[in-house]
Amino acid sequence: MDPMESIKITYFEECAELLVAMEEGLIAMENGEADDEIINAVFRAVHSIKGGGGAFGFEALVSFAHIFETVLDRIRSGELVPEPDVIKCLLRAGDLISDHVNAARSGSDAGIDDEEVKDELRELSGEASEEAGADDFEGLDFAPMQFDLGESGPEVKAESVWSIHFAPHASLYSKANEPYLILRELAVLGDMAVEADLSRLPPLSLLEPEEAYIAWNIVLRGDITRTAIEEAFEFAAEDCDLVIELLPPDNDELPALPQLPDLPEPVYPAVPDLPASGLADAMPAAVAVSDALKSPEQQKDATAETAQKSAASQSIRVDLDKVDRLVNLAGELVITQAMLAQSVQEAGLRSTSKLGAGLVEFEHLLRELQESVMAIRTQPVKSVFQRMPRLVRELAVQTGKQVRLVVEGESTEVDKTVIDRIGEPLTHMIRNAIDHGLEPTEARIAAGKPAEGTVTLSAEHRSGRIVIEIADDGAGINRVRVRDKAIEKGLIPASAVLSDEETDNLIFMPGFSTASTISNISGRGVGMDVVRRSIVELGGRISIVSTPGSGSRFVLTLPLTLAVLDGMVVAVGDQTYVLPLSHIIESMKLGKSDIHSYGREWELLDVRGSFVPVVRIGNLLGIEGSCHKDANGVAILVESESTGRFAVIVDAILGQRQVVIKSFENNYRHIEGVAAATILGNGRVALILDIDGLALLRRAQRESATPVELKATGS
Amino acid sequence: MSKVVLTVDDSKTIREMLRAALTDAGHTVLQAEDGVHGTEVLANAGMVDVIITDINMPRMDGYGFIGHVRSSPVHRATPILVLTTESEPAKKQRAKDAGATGWIVKPFDPAKLLAAVRRVAP
Amino acid sequence: MEEINKTAKEGRRQFITFCSSGQEFAADIMTIREIRGWTPTTPLPNAPDHVRGVINLRGVVLPVVDMRARLGHGITETNAKHVIVVVKIAERVIGLLVDAVSDIITPDIDEIQASPDLTRDAESDFVEGIVVVDEKMITILNMGHLMDSLREHAAPGTLVA
């Protein structure tokens, strides 16, 4: 790859990190928690974004970052007090700079409408007029160190002769400047004659080693501009006496000055008379030279040490494929171990035998290995949460409501896939919370609530799962309206008797939308059913708790990792299946009269007086040899996201275990009712059933009025 | 002439750009992420030929770092170039007062960077 | 597929031949990853007859297609002598249940005839052509099409939720 391209990738990666730091800092400022270091960090973030952006020529980005940075610099230096209004403006500027970065990444470094915010920033920056800002930006393009060697200045044409008097001060040496190098630069410009002026050199006994005593008189001839000469002295100009004069053009011969022997190489010509006198004044510099000429080995060591140091304080980026390969291999190991253990057992060896004990130890280590490998896939949920403050700010503006977002548990680690796919559902729920959940300000005041509504977004680990909550302190779900809507949409019969909880859950039904007027915020054709679907696809669940008058809380429960699953292994006929434990409520041995027919199509199971529909897996999946005698069967009560509770009838429960999820969709295709597969201890493949899919399959079976044709013919 | 150059900048982008340009020209590059890290690298690396440092950095900024180098008996004669932008004349002056040898204006192109290094390194 | 084209340029392709229900078939050797003995499969619900189910191939869940059933001759009565030809194209892997693997042939590319028009239909879409070797007619299979047909062939039991 072109090195600049690869640095550009680095730049955008870095920008992502800087934007996070900036956003965090700005929010800390908003909450009044910002100390100097935080303000400095925000400044640095914007500064670095600007710096890199300049290198790639992202002009709109740099121009915006510049004015933003100026304001931050004023706050940093105490010139500007970060009042709430100022911080509001900074937050908007933060959003815009993020937009600018995105635009630059997508290759369209323009078209961001930032004028309004820019004007506000300009006002805060003390640079009143637009011109001031523009000039300042243009300055960035200006290259002050240009060496236009071939080009003569407008006032001096062709050959000119310059006389230069150069008398360094001690400070020139203390800043590690070196007259020899300056003379070397000058020699590049043209023919040069140098004479050392030793007149100020004291007797040795009076000589101060760090004082500067020597000056030089230089005559320089060639097609040379004054600027070029000044540039050679640029770094030293403050620390020396410097007189540059143009000698009369007719002064062709220079008898007064000794001619230099010869200057063979125009690039790095040695200045012959320098070392003796120059180095005397610049001893420390000379030490630096000799010490720097150490062996390549030493230099390598130094480089390695540096590398080690940075490694200790940094993380590494690893290709996700590599991690997944590791996860897979760890999974294979677990399976192989289970197979070994089974063989050992079958061979009649006891677990107390040396081999048995070794295997147990092996299993422990493997579990640990597997967990550690899984942990690589996890990341703090922060990367998703950090997008929300901006969303909330924008929604607050759009709805005219006052909203405060409280974020908790950002450092909670979740699987990378969850991170990648949870953003949209969360966005949608936060939209809902602000748009539908929170009351308009007047209504809140009338209800005796604070004018500012609060939306809380939190994440935590809870008993082996990740729980994400989105809560608002709004009006809560309007159950009467939800119910009316559900009836109107034909989702429930008008006569339905529903508990509060059941009513609240209607909002997850496909085709439900409570907004009586479709607002342009939530009403984007995506309902809570889609949100629920995405959560379920991640192996999670969603529920709602609502209290009229005081708000709603959505609770998302997600698995820690998507690579393994806690399953219940069951037998159905001659087949073995795995049911996700997360969907199982309880299991019970079937009695003779527990199942009752219900209509033509259905059976209901009596669970302590409440009736739930029955799904016979053997029938549904067409498994031969499945027992149909209820007396021998087991009912497993499960909760489906879409259709509520039902009972799955299987022949036997074989046990609970953690299984490695293996997808086969790539090699085959999706099968309704099957989530994935796994490999059991005996090496055989077992299918992991999808509870929701089973429910849908059962419903479709009923709707088609004839049993689903389980074995299709191949022709 | 190959030089050992220590670059100190908290921006990975800038560090990488410096590294690309300098190694292209045959120099050996050491990197540090802030002033404190820079002093650690210097302590380990011994002498370097040139130091290029940013001003705005966490933990120890460029001024602090320059001060540290100039007060070190071993490193005080090492040339230091600071990275500035044209819009920061005050910073340039402050860096100069702290003991900077010269400066490089961002955004820089490799030719200007190498010229600046050549102008301060023997 | 790239490899196939490359070999094709040289005028010759190598095929592995196998028999199923009395017919000889050939598959490009570049698509064959391995050949293994029959192991019982885990059946897939609502799959067509010719999809015998899945097996564990060193951690990969491999769908197995019964060649005999795919040709409409009914399900193979499997025994330990049957073999599964493991076919891999791009990142997709499937197993093909056949009676036995017979030979490796290297016919000249000009010797491969297109399948006669009259015999073509949607079901034989995975036939690439015919070649005669030692007076035996061998049907050359297009493994890519065979794989694709697994996806398109939605079983009647599949439901749209």
List the domain count of chain B as a whole number. Answer: 1
Helix content of chain B: 40-55%
Unreliable stretches of chain C (pLDDT < 50, length at least 5) are 1-8, 153-161
CATH class of chain C: Mainly Beta
The amount of helix of chain C comes to: 10-25%
Specify the CATH class of chain B. Answer: Alpha Beta
CA gyration radius of chain B, whole angstroms: 13 Å
Oligomer: heterotrimer
- What is the distance, rounded to the nearest whole angstrom, between the alpha carbons of the first and last residues of chain C? 36 Å
Number of helices, counting only DSSP H or I runs of 4 residues or more of chain C: 3
Largest interface, with counts of residues having CB < 8 Å to the other chain, equals: A-B, 63 and 57 residues
Walk me through what this model shows.
The complex is a heterotrimer of chains A (715), B (122) and C (161). Chain A is of the alpha+beta class. Chain A contains 23 helices and 22 strands. Chain A has a six-stranded mixed beta sheet with strand order 14-18-19-17-16-15. Chain A has a five-stranded mixed beta sheet with strand order 6-8-9-11-10. By secondary structure, chain B is of the alpha/beta class. Chain B is 44% helix and 20% strand. Chain B has helices spanning 12-24, 35-45, 62-70, 89-98, 110-120, and strands spanning 4-8, 28-32, 50-53, 80-85, 102-106. Chain B has a five-stranded parallel beta sheet, sandwiched between helices. The longest helix of chain B has 13 residues, at 12-24. Chain B is globular, with a radius of gyration of 13 Å. Chain C has one domain (2-152): CheA-289, Domain 4 (OB fold (Dihydrolipoamide Acetyltransferase, E2P)). Helices cover 14% and strands 40% of the residues of chain C. Chain C has helices at residues 2-9, 67-70, 143-152; strands at residues 15-20, 23-28, 32-37, 51-57, 60-66, 83-89, 92-98, 100-105, 127-133, 136-141. The longest helix of chain C is centred in the C-terminal third of the chain and has 10 residues, at 143-152. The model of chain C is unreliable at 1-8 and 153-161 (pLDDT under 50). The interface between A and B is large, with 63 and 57 residues.
